[in-house]
Amino acid sequence: MVSKMVPHNSSSTTKEMATVIFAMLPGLFALGWIFGPGVWIHVAIVVPTAMVAEAAILLIRGRNPINELNDLSAILTALLLAASLPPLLPWWMTLLGTLFAIILAKQLYGGLGQNPFNPAMIGYVILLVSFPLEMTSWLPAAGIQGEPLSWTAASQVIFGTGPTTVDTLTGATPLGGLKTGLIQGLTLQESLLKLPNGLLAGPGWEWINIAFLVGGLILLFTRTISWHIPLSVLGGLFLTALIFNLIDPNSYATPLYHLLSGGIMLGAFFIATDPVTASTTPMGRIWFGVGIGVLDYIIRTWGGYPDAVAFSVLLMNMFAPLIDHFTQPTIYGGNREARP
Amino acid sequence: MSETTAKEKPLTHYRKLLSDGLWTNNAGLVQLLGLCPLLAVTTTTINGLGLGLATTLTLIISNLMVSSIRNFISQEIRIPVFVLIIASTVTGIELAMNAWFHELFLVLGIFIPLIVTNCAIIGRAEAFASRNSLLPALVDAISMGVGFTLLLMLLGGLRELFGFGTLFAQSDLMFGEGAEWMTITLIEDYRGFLLAILPPGAFIGLGLIIAAKNRIDQRMTEAVSARTALQPQTA
User: Å from B199 to nearest chain A CA?
Assistant: First the structure.
């Protein structure tokens, strides 16, 4: 098996993580613009929680927390989680998800470089299976549909201190609404008409995905990530969606709709590319990415949840060592059959 | 597996059997046997207790029967014979639970007949009962069974506490009407934490319990070695 060497406590890790965090900013600002300040309240909850949890476990393990907090990986995990959560999730759920991500999914396996599963996605999935109602309640895209949510209203909902409650504000995501419509026997066009108008993929979501795409391109051009995983995730989703859309355009959404919906851009560029939990060989990365794209389409279309980036990433994390085993590149000179 | 005969030092021998079953060689915690029912039914304390008692009873009966006929079974066919004994015991217990603890029987469902496949039981028959006389076999069955039951109750209690915020809910299934007072609601208006009830909760919970046991063992070894290291200096 290819060893997943992540140089620890080295400046290159810190620099890489800092670049990824910087590249997340466009997406976070888009989330903040479309869904109001709840996103920033979540960021303010998750980042300190993740750092305290990481430091506490490192102390228990007899390590120097300052050395290892420097690599910024805990902050990145926290931000990825905050970007995936519904903007008005109660604060204690956010807190719980962060603790699970850092303590259970990362530190109990031995810390950065040792965890087989993406910590942020473990935190997200634990919250999703435990609190399905809250985790699928999204705000209508206030930023482009009128009054944006005020800071006071957002914090009242998140901390449960005021008269504004989550029920008066939230609804299903476009992906979720589309699925409900299709289940009720409506055609695709009819289901889309029932949703609030949006450019392609439901209001707001296309802007969020475009913003994360911009961040992803920054990562590609700074060579922080290689093209293999994001391109194959998006390609796998695009091709699968294209095939089904061509077979029956009335029941299956267009590939472009899928590419701009849900958390796919965040997943393709920021989550699936985690160097610790992804495949490491070039061919393996392509298989890994295609697997995520296809699984995402399958779970979105026929599964019980509206979006499935987290489940697809975790499932493929499980296969990463196997994929690596079968895609070892031939060492130069290792192939005796080949003649120059 | 202790292979010493009971002749040498009976009392210490039995004490070792007890500590083996309850702690050192616990069927669930150390041997990791019988994990399928262990993980599947421990959603509440009472479920754990019910399945634990049924398993203990099966262990006692099968250990006693295997031990009493151990000199008549030929080596070649011993495993089929053990399986027959265990299967008929479980069938009897299943019918008895259906008759007297019908509600609990419905809750535990398929996991009562599945006690047959619990490796801990055939493990004890093969490793202990078929090589020891009646009394040690009985003590071994009780200690292994009680150790397993305690683990089931501990895991069930933890999952029930985090999942529902209660302890000993549905006691009436086990102890009949009028046992509702046993139910302790620790957190009023608890909204529930579904993960603890779902299968991942069982795996996470068992993992944490095993980790805690290893930590305690480690502490005890450290304490013992520290004491032995100190003695020469004080002497």
Answer: 11
In a domain, A3, yes or no: no
Find, in chain A, the residue whose alpha carbon is nearest to that of B211: A108
Domain coverage including residue A233: 11-326
Q: For residue A104, what is the nearest residue in chain B, using CA coordinates?
A: B204
Cα B192 to the chain's mean position, in Å?
27
Contact (CB, 8 A) for A237 and A258: yes
The pLDDT value recorded for residue B2 is: 47
Q: What is the DSSP letter of B88?
A: H
Percent of chain B with pLDDT over 70: 90
Does B198 contact A129 at a Cβ distance shorter than 8 Å?
Answer: yes
Supply the CATH number for residue A27's domain: 1.10.3430
Query: Strands B184-185 and B166-167, how do they pair?
Result: antiparallel
First to last CA, chain A: 29
Q: Which two tokens stand for residue A267?
A: 């997943």
Return the amino acid letter for B141. A
- Sign of the four-CA dihedral B139, B142, B147, B148: positive
Q: Is the ipTM of this complex over 0.95?
A: no
Domain count, chain A: 1
User: With a CB-CB cutoff of 8 Å, which residues 94-113 of chain A face chain B?
Assistant: 104
Spatial distance between the Cα atoms of A184 and A186, rounded to a whole number of angstroms: 6
Q: Is residue A220 part of a domain?
A: yes
Report yes or no: B134 and B25 within 8 Å, Cβ to Cβ: no
Q: pLDDT tens digits, residue range B202-221?
A: 999 999 999 999 999 999 88
Q: Which residues of chain A lie closer than 8 angstroms to B195, CB-CB?
A: 126, 129-130
- Quote the tokens at residue A280: 């490491």
Tens-digit pLDDT profile for residues A7-30:
454 578 888 889 999 999 999 999
Do A85 and A307 contact (CB within 8 A), yes or no? no
Rg (CA), chain B: 20
The 8-class DSSP code of residue A340 comes to: -
Q: Is residue A336 assigned to a domain? A: no
CB contact under 8 A, B194 and A126: no
- Residues A306/A300, Cβ–Cβ less than 8 Å: yes
Q: pTM of the predicted model, to two decimals?
A: 0.82
Give the mean model confidence (pLDDT) for residues B56-80.
91
DSSP state of A100: I
pLDDT digits 0-9 by tens, B143-167: 999 999 999 999 999 999 888 888 8
Tell me whether residues B194 and A129 touch, CB distance under 8 A.
yes
Can you give the pLDDT at residue A171? 61
Using DSSP's 3-state secondary structure scheme, residue B107 falls into: helix
Residue spans of the domains in chain B: they are 10-234
User: Domain for residue A237, yes or no?
Assistant: yes
